[in-house]
Amino acid sequence: MYPHDPFSLADRSELFRPFDALRSGNVTREAAWDEYLTHLKLVLDEVERLLENLDANDVIITADHGEAFGEYGFYRHVIDCPLPCMRKVPWVNTSATDCEKYESHAPAPESTNETTAEDRLEDLGYL
Q1: Where is this region: Disordered (predicted)?
Q2: What's the rounded Cα separation, in Å, for the pair 45 and 55?
């Protein structure tokens, strides 16, 4: 899910939904951006873990959209918005080598949190 908001690990409650707080003036652009970067780093740490634990000559790291932080009055990601900050997404070509640094352990199916597709879409701000 990360770096998509809501940011449940935010230190400040107003940064839980940073784009709403930024739009309302409750946080600065810098504070919202810093929170975004904090959560992006969590994702990149996991990408690094994956790259160190699989063998692949060609790996693409990308995303489905960017985010707006108030440019021309736009916040988050808005469908069909022409702004480059939302249209331009990262595209990194790399490779991976299994260094056997991590062994995954999946939780038992009965211990996972059951959510519906609608719950997930709402969490991501689509509903």
Answers
A1: 100-127
A2: 18
